[in-house]
Amino acid sequence: MERLTNISTVRELLxxxxxxxxxxxxxxxxINPSVCPRMAEAAVTDDNTGVxxxxxxxxxxxxxxxxxxxxxxxxxxxxxLLPVLDETLGEYDNLRVIHADVMExxxxxxxxxxxxxxxxxxxxxxxxxxxxPVIMKLLEERLPIDTITVMVQKEAALRLCAGEGSRDSSxxxxxxxxxxxxxxxFHVSAGSFMPAPKVxxxxxxxxxREPEYKPLDEKTLFCVIKAAFAQxxxxxxxxxxxxxxxxxxxxxxxxxxxxxxxxxRAEQLTLRDFVRISDAxxxxxxxx
Length: 288
Ligand code: SAM
Hints:
By secondary structure, the chain is of the alpha/beta class. The protein contains 12 helices and 9 strands.
């Protein structure tokens, strides 16, 4: 079904299905006709692409993905939308809708079963209440995915795509940079959605790759990153020592051996610095 961005068509469709928006599920549907084609074009770069979409809603982005991809698997938590999707996208035979919570789903299995031999990408207008958990799940599970092209809140986009050492950087910036190269593709105004959210949005693309710097132990690395940003206004010495319950004078030595000034702030550190600190902690602060 075309014209899923036409407000009266969407209103009529939703009222016929007795659908009301759930704020808790982050339901803001795209009604700006230029956004979904741009997202789909950025995500689907060849006709052997399989797309995993999270939260298809009434299928406005799904429709654009289906026109370009070999196959689309769309995971939707709200069962009330399944009959709507049946009506809007029933004509396509390269679509599978899975009624599930994306956070609970075995995505590796879904990818293996649904996309054999295909290049796999993720494309979604994410439900904003789970932006970071979804992105971290996709990255940490090391799924065989090429890119993640997603709409997120503008502030989240700035954080996720912040340059190293920039004021917008946070623990998730460093974590994302470990697994992927982030890029902010374009901004989207709040008025592009129905209902309009309070904040603007942006589409970002993460291109997955092998980590540039590997730590001895990833668990320590992510612990250090979280600890350093836990009290971001404090020095890394104070923040890491209190969050990881490490002795200050010992940690001071560890930071120096890693080439990091104890008085630095977390946002000033590069991923390479965090890897060095993590390795120095794992070696007991003995490397120099
Ligand atoms: N893709 C549609 C669009 O762009 O108009 C809808 C996007 S809306 C921001 C987010 C969608 O994610 C909603 O359809 C919502 O029901 C669904 N959703 C929310 N939580 C989810 C979860 N945990 N797993 C799967 N889908 C979820």
